[in-house]
Amino acid sequence: MEKVDLVKKMALSSDFSEHNRIIEYFNQNLDRFINYFQAIKELLYKPATDDNYNQVFQNFIKLFDYIPLMATKLYQDKYIVRARPNYNCQVFSKLSEISHKSDPNEIYAGRFNAPGISIFYGALQADNQLDLSLTSCLESCKPLTSFSVEIQDMTIGLWRIKEVLPVVNLCFDEQHLYTNNILKVAADQYLHQLEINYSKKAFSFLYEFFNYFSCLSRTNMKNNECYYILSALFAAIRYYQQNIRNAPFAGIIYPSSATEGFGLNTGLIPLAVNNILELDKVGMYRFILDKQNSIYNARPCCDLVDVTNGEFQITNYTSIYPNL
Question: What distance lies between CA 88 and its chain's CA centroid?
Fold first, then answer.
């Protein structure tokens, strides 16, 4: 029980100096934690069975007993942008149609969610000023990243954060941090605290661990092999925060795969979305493929409208197929 009590007190943010006994144990038993990490990596290309998922989950829990995660916050009155494709000329009019899905039977495996488990995915403003609407649309409609659709309408919701959201940062690789200076400063400060408190060899492992899953978060794989590893990671972070540390937890932030790591995404649990986010405005973009140059031209295709009591009315919109 002593170990659990100590771990519950482990700081998420920056001051590790009070936790010398935990750090000393980690330094002295580093090979054990390296083996947990290696086991997870070896399961990446194994079938996504329940047994393999549970092995990955349990290994993450063993690691998080001694690896402090980096907490950060999404601040009040900032916005999250979430997009949804409009298929078959459908025009949305309700918040529930463009928010996270609630029916487990309609939820397929995603980057950080297992089948049947709902996560709200959205784009955040990064320091690099990358267009949030673009990031969100590319993440929400994979045919846009493979140029396999000639014309596509997308509905974009602007979600205002009403209260501070506590999240765990998974962005540590230079591909993203190079163009996101604000987050880079915070990540560097966190890593510096690890470096001065852990042994040289232990810090090297910790850096490799965080960098690996940061890169995996933005990696596109042919058969989405990384999904069940990352969904186990999210589940383990959530379980550990809520059940071991009794700490507030709304979700994660991670580098965008659709923008090759330059964009910044968030994955939030439904409870946080329902209680702390407010759908403020809704608009639509139309993507038209320029076949000669293999790029999409994108522009707004309706007014930006307000939302009242979870409902909205799209105006000045012309359907892709106006005669239908």
Answer: 28
Handedness of CA 264, 269, 270, 275 (dihedral sign): negative
pLDDT at 11 over 60: no
Number of domains in the chain: 1
Q: Is the pLDDT of residue 9 over 90?
A: no
Strands (E), 102-141: 120-124
Across 96-106, average pLDDT = 94
Chain position carrying tokens 């990384």: 226
- One-letter amino acid at 306 equals D
Nearest-angstrom CA–CA distance, 176 and 254: 9
Residue in the structure block whose two tokens are 């929400």: 140
Mean per-residue pLDDT over the chain, rounded: 89
What's the whole-number mean pLDDT along residues 236-264?
91
Contacts 24+ apart (CB under 8 A), 50-55: 52/228, 53/114, 53/228, 53/231, 53/232
Q: What is the pTM of this model?
A: 0.90
Is the confidence at residue 14, as pLDDT, over 70? no
Q: Of 282, 255, 281, 277, whose CA–CA distance to 266 is shortest?
A: 255
- Domain range for 144 is 1-324
Structure token pair of residue 62: 């063993």
